[in-house]
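At this stage, I wrote out one protein, both as residues and as discrete backbone shape codes, and that material follows here.
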Amino acid sequence: MEALTSFIVLLIISVFVSAVLHYGLKYYVNPGHWSFASKIVVGYFGALWGDDIFGRWIEPVRIEDVYVIPAIVGSIALLILAVDVGKMVTRK
């Protein structure tokens, strides 16, 4: 049950961060729902690796094994990296 809770928390973080970047800030390579869906996948991995890369801090803001702040930072970082690489590749 712990793994399912962690998965759902990471997925919620990824959807939230992806929505803010894609629809709120209009930060994407291509507009559309498929671009948003791909951001959710990339953002999930960023959130998953967030505590490994940025550390485990702010203990009270933790749900199961997910440290929320590093997961958000990791999701944002990997999404920005992916969009920037996508923009470089598609630039003519």
Summary: The chain is about 75% helix and 5% strand. The first strand starts at residue 62 and ends at 63. The chain has one domain: 2-90. Residues 2-90 form one domain.
